[in-house]
Amino acid sequence: DFQSIINEATALLGQTGTIGDMEGIIVDQLQILKKIFPALIAISVVITGTLNYYVTIWYINKVGFNKESYIHVKYWFLPRWVISIGIVIALLLKGNLLFVNLNMVLLFFTLIQGYAVSIFFIDKKFKSFVLKLIYTAIILFVPVLPPFLILLGLVDFWFDFRKIKYNKKED
Predict the structure, then answer these.
(1) What are phi and psi of 111, to 5 degrees?
(2) Hey, is 127 helix, strand or coil?
(3) DSSP state at residue 96
């Protein structure tokens, strides 16, 4: 219930005495979260499922079953036509709540595409797991970088910087 969250946040800020203009900002932000909640659920499902899959494959291989995983993240190539047309349609119909959520999910997929491109080039140059882990943490905690990855993902859909779409590589 978003109204109870709003009430709790305003009560918490009211106790500190710094509520002022913050109440309006909190209410606005929680209303936006309420509108994009379906997209956030879909994105968290993708993240949770992917992490679950790769951690499970890692564990299965560690205990000796030798199960091959699907394709590594650095070779991911998402369907460009579906995502590109979906983004254009969602931007044209951004007044509808369904298309706002669709746009969020599709932009998340382009973020994933851009992340795959950047990981590909980091792995090509350095081959360090620690460096890729640090890079991932930086992407998660520096809010300026994901828009650049979204742009990189959109451009990679059409220009295939990694040259892997028709040239499947094995790791």
Answers:
(1) -60, -45
(2) coil
(3) S
Confidence of residue 62 (pLDDT cuts 50, 70, 90): confident
Query: What distance, in Å, lies between the first and last C-alpha atoms of the chain?
Result: 47
CA atoms within 13 A on the CB side of 79: 5
Burial of 44 (0-12, 13-18, 19+ CB in 10 A): exposed
Distance of CA 11 to the CA centre of its chain: 32
Cβ contact 157:112 at 8 Å: no
CA–CA dist 113, 75 (Å, integer): 9
Task: Report which residue type is found at 10.
Answer: T
Instruction: Decide: 53 and 68 in contact? Cβ < 8 Å.
Output: no
CB distance 34 to 10 below 8 Å? no
**pTM (2 d.p.):** 0.80
Q: What pLDDT, in 10s, does the model give residues 113-140? A: 999 999 999 998 988 889 999 999 999 9
pLDDT for position 169:
46
Mean pLDDT of the chain: 84
